[in-house]
Amino acid sequence: MNLAIETSELRKSLGTRLRRRAIIRGCDLKVPRGKVYGFIGPNGAGKTTMMRLLLGILRPDAGTVRLLGHDMADRPHVALRRIGAFVESPALYDHLSGTANLDITRRLLGLPETEVARVLDIVGMTRHAARKVRDYSLGMKQRTALARTLLGAPELLMLDEPTNGLDPEGISEMRDLIRDLPDRIGATVFVSSHLLAEVEQVADYAGLLRDGQLAMQGPLTELLASERVLRLKTDQTENTLRILKIAGLEPRTAGREYIALSCPAGEDFFAFSAAINARLVDAGILVGEIVEQRQTLEDLYRQSAGAGLRKDAA
Amino acid sequence: MMALIRAELAKLNGSLALLFMLAVPALTAALALLAIVTNGSASNWNTILGSFVLPLWVMFIYPMATATFATLTAQVEYRAKAWDHLLALPFSRWQIFAAKWVVVQASLALMTALLFAYSYILISTGGLLIGSMPVGDPAFAKVANGSLRLLAAGMLFSTIQLWIALRFGNFVIPLAVGIAGTLVGMAVVITGSSQANWFPWVMTINAAKDGWESSVVGGLIGGAIALALMLTDLSKRSLR
Question: pLDDT value at position A142?
Answer without folding.
Answer: 86
